[in-house]
Amino acid sequence: MKQDNSLFEAVSSFLSSPSAFDDGTVEVKTISTHASIVFLGRSLVYKIKRPVQYDYMDFSTPEKRKANCDNEFALNKAIAPSLYLSVCTITREENGDLKIDGEGEPVEWAVKMLRFPEEQVLKNLALKNNFQKAHAIELGQSIASYHKSLPPLKVLDGASRIDEVIKELDRSLKLLEKQFDEFQASSLLEALRAAFADCQAELDQRGQMGFVRRCHGDLHLNNIVMTANGPVPFDALEFDERLATIDVIYDLSFLLMDLLHMGLKRHANIVLHRYALNAWELMSHGGFKILPLCLSIRSAIRAMVLGQQASLSEPADKTILKEAKSYLSLTKKLLENSPPALLAVGGLSGTGKSTLAVELAALKSAPLGAVLLRSDLERKEMLGASEFEQLSEENYSSEMSSRVYDQMLKKAEQILTQGQSVILDAVFLSKTERDSATGLANKRGVSFCGSYLDAPLPTLLSRVGARSNDASDADQAVVKKQYELKPNFSDCENKSDDMNASWISIDASGTKTQTFDNAKAILLRRDLL
To answer: At what angle do helices 248-261 and 265-278 cross, to 10 degrees?
Structure first.
């Protein structure tokens, strides 16, 4: 419900003028939403709250708008210090003119920011096909660090918080059911409630363990910008503490769902496994199990919001309605169960196993694919080393390697137990190591296939010699030692045409595409992709 707009319109007109900026602005660009207006100058940005009131948001008085500006600044200054500059006062001077931080009476408040290139916002990078694998890696790592830095809040109502959202979806989607005629909102909500019931214990347990935190709350691709120092979230949800005090997995889910909706499953998969690598504690205690529920709720909320927006016009805006329906389709897909499986990709250094594992992880039928566990990264995480830091030879002792494999298998078991598929990426040089992976699959009662890549020694030496910026520390000398111990797959362990073989040998002497096609064909025959 809108309030008296005369003063607000005067402030908007003032900030729309280049004279309001002291940075050489020639033309002001404006971005309007239902809650605010953003004025973009040459290097500065001013954002004001609209004098509006909704069920979930109240900016109806100057005092409330000031409080929300202050809160927005404090929250975002902590996560994006280089972007957020101050909260400015718009004043009415004695001569009647409006001024920023003048001496006159305060009439409005604005969040002042540094302008950044709009093309570097992740949504815009994705729309132009410029969202790279490296961006996804950085994104997963940075969000993990951000979530780990947040103070843990032990709450007793972890499940109730999610239940509140589902009840609101129930109420709102039923009102929109006529617009979503080909979708059964009632059946969708029934599936949501069933998924919630299955995760209720985990949600409560995670709340008690401190995994509910005051998060960003609105963590999607339009609210993250890629800077020289990596991805930076901005515009955190400021108007409702309860809406933003959520499980970290629910916060992460908005970003992952957004990537899936844009058809970027491979990138979403990379974000997930990098997040899990860097924030294992946040994921391991039921995080993988609640993930599909959180993803589907985020998607359903987007459908609801867009449906409400479309209904404001008569007849309903077909373009917006079409997008809303696409989110309902995604919600339905996210709620479909996919039995977990365990895959392994082995081979000597230089065979391309890590490249293949990344591609196969995103091909698994589950919405986010399979969680990738790579021995090179697990080793460095265990030792507190950075990804490209060169480790000493002692960190590759047989004892240390056993610890790495043990950790990978323990993690894999936890993930499989929570209903998610796993891909293991390691050399798997010994039969004992390969048998341990097969044994885990048998223990958990899940399908398994191990792909062992093979290529001639000269090919391996050439590839390893050409490496740069790789987590693997293996050099040509290491490859030669590995080659002396290379498994002999002449027995029944490996025949690619044997549908019962647990491990199969795959020719990796050709291009990456050829290796991928060889592995994919076998896994498809086994109904594992």
So the answer is: 160
Calpha distance 358→425 (Å, rounded): 9
Name the stretches of the chain with pLDDT < 70.
1-4, 182-183, 489-500
pLDDT at 297 (0 to 100) = 97
CA 30 to CA 10: how far, in whole Å? Answer: 15
Model pTM above 0.85: yes
Coil, strand or helix at 95:
coil
Give dist(CA 194, CA 286) in Å, integer.
Answer: 17
d(CA 442, CA 436): 10
Q: For residue 499, what pLDDT is reported?
A: 59
Burial of 96 (0-12, 13-18, 19+ CB in 10 A): exposed
What's at 57, amino acid-wise? M
Instruction: Give the burial string for 228-264 (b: 16+ CB within 10 Å, else e).
Output: eeebbbbbbbbbeeebbbbbbbbbbbbbbbbbbbbeb
Q: What is the 3-state secondary structure (H, E, C) of 210-274?
A: CCEEECCCCCCHHHEEEECCEEEECCCCCCCHHHHEEEHHHHHHHHHHHHHHCCCHHHHHHHHHH
**Token pair 């998969």 is at which residue?**
269
For residue 485, the one-letter residue type is: L
Q: Which of 285, 289, 259, 288 is nearest to 271 (CA)?
A: 259
What does the block give as tokens for 315?
């007849």
DSSP 175-198: HTTTTTTTS-HHHHHHHHHHHHHH
Other C-beta atoms within 10 Å of 208: how many? 14
Do 192 and 300 form a contact (C-beta atoms < 8 A)?
Answer: yes
Residue type, 320: I
81 phi, psi to nearest 5 deg: -60, -30
**Segment holding 374, helix H or strand E:** strand 371-374
**In the chain, count of helices (H) and strands (E)?**
19, 17
Cα dist from 170 to 173, 184, 505, whole Å: 6, 12, 51
Lookup: tokens for 38:
């953003």
Contact 362, 273 (CB under 8 A): no
Closest CA to 465 of 482, 447, 477, 481: 477
CA gap 482, 348 in Å, rounded: 7
Identify the pLDDT of residue 33.
82
Distance CA 12, CA 14 (A): 5
Residue 398, both tokens: 């047989």
- Tell me how far apart the alpha carbons of residues 341 and 323 are, in angstroms, rounded to a whole number: 33
% of the chain at pLDDT higher than 90: 78
